[in-house]
């Protein structure tokens, strides 16, 4: 069981209905992976009888994705009813009513609408993929891109440059918005990935992969979230015997004075990911404030459930690894009054790993310097985001740090 959440949450936990999350069979021409065939399940938490009020999106807000022309319920879509979730983690977000039976997802999107059809089809890479040297290493980048319009085009160009320079196999993004995504797609670096599609929300998470997704990406709304936060997951399989497939989960946990909600969301993350039998990687903006520097409710020390590990703590013991830092990020200090007044220096952005066939060999910060040779109209330096990115490198075929 998870040791990081309070006993009353653990006591209130109940079993969830499970939905199969199975890897497609390999073609005869594909290299045979030595790993056993996964019969993994992916569990879905209860959605309270509710339909969320859908935020307004202007026509064509999602760009070319709205012209996908595909309809119907996506493969592997979850039914609208399920049972089980820690009772203390239940909440009633504003604007919720009754949920018709059989909705394709927990956002209450009618599958017959054009905007729903756009959400059901991941965005394929539009540029020829550059060959990847699969030298038994795998790179994953997580980046909260900041939803602000401040210097947005130049910041997104800079993030594209980071992706193009470091060439991660997989990218996880948080705080994406439709008009920001349209700007990102102008970068050739973004065009070389297959991307998950957007939910009907004001801002959201996305996953980009250099290969098509092995399973339909699934997005689960946290029922207790007041900020429309969710959990996005898919299986990544490079069809390479030296790179085992893995489940990638991405999230942007509840912000600010929401320590209890974050613990509930972490509980859901580990429950869902532990239903998958293979390699598992979680990353994203956790908003964890262990000492309560910026929040009145400190999260306290996060003790991950065995055998999950935090690679930053393993590879950089004693290094705080701040990813939201008013001392180093002058743009954050100027633009965020809350962070400035709290003198905020925290490691919001994290990786958590449950691995047997990979080993973390390096983890480093990216985007922690201002844009070169560029300043805003007032002469201030500009950073790619208010967060720093985290780049993790895994090596396959080596003994794990924690078996």
Describe the model.
The chain is an alpha+beta fold and 403 residues long. It has a domain of 260 residues: Deoxyribonuclease I, Chain A (4-Layer Sandwich), CATH 3.60.10.10. It has nine helices and 15 strands. It has a six-stranded mixed sheet with strand order 5-6-4-3-15-14. A five-stranded mixed sheet has the order 7-8-9-10-13, with no helix packed on it. It has a two-stranded antiparallel ribbon with strand order 1-2. A hairpin with an 8-residue loop joins strand 7 and strand 8. The longest helix is centred in the middle third of the chain and has 15 residues. The protein is globular, with a radius of gyration of 20 Å.
Number of separate strands: 15
CATH fold node name of the domain at 137-396:
Deoxyribonuclease I, Chain A
At the first level of CATH, the class of the domain at 137-396 is Alpha Beta
CATH architecture of the domain at 137-396: 4-Layer Sandwich
Overall structural class, as computed from helix and strand content, comes to: alpha+beta
Unreliable segments of 5+ consecutive residues: 1-20, 27-121
The assembly state of the depicted protein chains is single chain
Strand content: 15-25%
Distance between the termini: 17 Å
State the CATH superfamily name of the domain at 137-396: Endonuclease/exonuclease/phosphatase
Cα Rg = 20 Å
Q: Can you tell me the overall shape? A: globular
Order of helices and strands, N to C?
HEEHEHEHHEEEEEHEHEHHEEEE
